[in-house]
C-alpha cells in the first residue's frame, strides 16, 4: 500500500526523527493546515464495501489508486460501526436465484471471512477488509478523511465537464490532501463527489407514469427509505439493572410493532427499527440518528423494566450503533436508468457488467412508527443484468458511479441498493477505469462494441459473473488443448446416509439433465400408512432459470406401509440440456432417504411459500423452491437409470465459472481415489500463468456478520492439489479454500502437457474444477509496469 498518511511504513523512523523535544512557534496572523499533494490514476471516494472492492480491483488491474474513507474502518454498513450482514442476489437463499453469489473480489472477501470468521464477528470482518487493501501496493488509503471540495477542469471547447481533483481533510492528523487524477469513482453513498461536481441526481420516488412502474409508492407510503440503528445484548450470568437515559422513548405505544419485541433477538435482527424516510436523509441524518437512539434505548428499557420479559434479567446492553445504517439518499443520473421492468423482466443489455437479485424491497417512510408492514418485497423469477450505462455519469465525463447511488429509479433501487450488488458494480467500474487509463478514453467510450466486449472479457476473467455471458478468451491456451480426466461423474447414484427426510413440505432435488428422455429415478421411502405420493419433474423458462413452473412430467406412486424402493417413470423428454427439479409433493405419511454426499451443481430444495400474482403492482406469481442450508440441507438419495453425465472434463474450458444451465465443472467420480485432469497440446506451448476456478458453493449466501455458519471451508472446494508440466512439479498446494487460484511462474515453461492432480477436498464431496486457464503472459494486469496518469480523457479520447 502506498502511504501519504505516515502509516504502514516498512522502515522505522530514524533516531533523529524521534529526538525532537520542544516546538516553539511564535504567534502569526493565521496558519494553514499541513497540506500534502498526490496524484493517481483513479480516486475512489467512499470506503464502504463497493469502494473497497473497486479500489482493490483497480489496483490489481495495475492502477495507482487513492481510496478516501471518512470513517476509521472500511466497509460502510458492513463494518463494525453498523454491523449489517452483506447480502445481494443470494437473498438469504430465500428465492429462486440459484448459484447467485457475486464473484470477483467480493467473493474472495466473503469466502475468506467464512474461513476465518464463520461466527460472524464484525470486528474480524474489519480486519479482513483492511488486510485486503493494505496488501495492495498500488492503493493509498486515507482513513478518517472526508472529501471536502472538488476542482473541476477549466471549460472545454465542446462544453464537456470533468473533475480535475479533490480536496480532503483528515481530522486525526490535521492534514489536508490535494489529489489529482484523470478518473474518479463516487462510492460515497450520499454522492458527495457527484454532488459537488454538479452532476444531476434524484432523491425520492418517481411517479408511476415516468417509467410505467406499477410498484411506485404512493405519497402516503413515502418516497424514501429510512435509516436503522442496531444493538447487541449479552447474557452475563447475573441480573443486570438498566437505568435509561433521559432521552429514551418512554411510550412504546407509538410503535405499532412493539408487541413483537422479545429478549431473544439482538437488535441487529430488528432491521425494522427504522425511521427518517420523510426527512432529508443527507442533511438530517443526525436528527434521524437521535430519534433512533431514543427508540433503541426505549426498547431496551421496555425489555428490561416492563416486567413482561423475565428472561431479560441477565442481559446487558453490549453495544449500540453510533452511526445509522443508511438505505437511501441521492441517486445520480447516468447514461441509462434501470427501472422495474428491467428488474422483473430480466432485460438483456449489450453492456451488462454486473447483476442483481435482491427483491424490490421498499419500506414505509415512517418506519417503526408506521402501521404498515416493515417492508414490501416484490421478487422476480431470477437474477437480472445491470448495464454499464447505469454506472457512468451523464454529466461529468470522467465520473463513475458505484454502490447505492447508481442510475436507477426509486423502485429499481429497492433491489440494487444492497451491498453485494453495489460492490459488484464497484468492481465493474474499476476494471473499466483501468481500460480508460490504458487507452486514454472517456468512460462513455467503452460503450463502443469492441471496447465493451473487452471490458466484459476482463470482468469474466476476474470471475465477475455476468448472467448470459461466457468468457470467450482467445489468449487462453486451455481452449485449444485436448482435455481428459481420470474419471467423470456420471450420476447414477446418490448413496443413502442418515435419517430420512419427512415430506412435511414439498421437497425437491435440483439436477442438471441432458437432452433426450429423462432417466428413471429410484427413491427409497419410509411409509407410515398406505398412501399416494405425487412426483413431478419441472424446469424453468430457460436452462438456467430455476423457477420450476414448467411441468415436464408427473406420476402418482401407490405406496404400502414400510420401507421400500420405488421407481419413478416420468415418460418425459428434454429438448435441450437443462436444470430440472424433481419434486416430491408433501405427504405426511412419507419420508424419503437422503444422502450426505455434496456434489457440485446439485441442490436440495423445499417449497416454502408462494408469491401471488398482482397485476396492480406488476408482481408475478411464483412458487419458491429454495435450498436448505447445511447441515440440514442434504441431497435426496437417488438412482438415475441411465446415469447422467454431469461432470465432463471438457467443461473446464467452456468459459463459465459456476453452474448455469449445466454444472459447468469437471467432477470426478466419488470412487476415484486419485482424481487427475490432463491437458495436452499437439505442439509445445509456452505457459507463464495457470488459473483455476474452484467450487466454493456460489449458492451459499455467506452472510458476513451475526449469522453463524456450519463450515469454514466449503466442502466442494478442492483443498490439496499439484500442478505439473511434463512430469515437472510447478506447484504443490495444501489447505486451499478460495474460489480462485493463480500460479504465476517466475520462468515460463515450455510444455505440451499440464496435469492437475487432486489429493484432497475440504468435505465429503467429489473433486471438482470449474475452469483451468493457461496464459503465455505471467502478468494479469490491464495496465503494465505501474500505471501512469494519462492525459485528460476529454482530450485523449478524441
Automatic annotation (TrEMBL):
InterPro entries: FAD/NAD-bd_sf, HdrA-like. Keywords: 4Fe-4S, Iron, Iron-sulfur, Metal-binding, Oxidoreductase. Residues 7-20 have a biased composition (Polar residues). Residues 1-21 are annotated as: Disordered. GO terms for molecular function: 4 iron, 4 sulfur cluster binding; metal ion binding; oxidoreductase activity. It holds the Pfam family FAD_oxidored. PANTHER family: COB--COM HETERODISULFIDE REDUCTASE IRON-SULFUR SUBUNIT A (PTHR43498:SF1), FERREDOXIN:COB-COM HETERODISULFIDE REDUCTASE SUBUNIT A (PTHR43498). This is FAD dependent oxidoreductase. It comes from Occultella aeris.
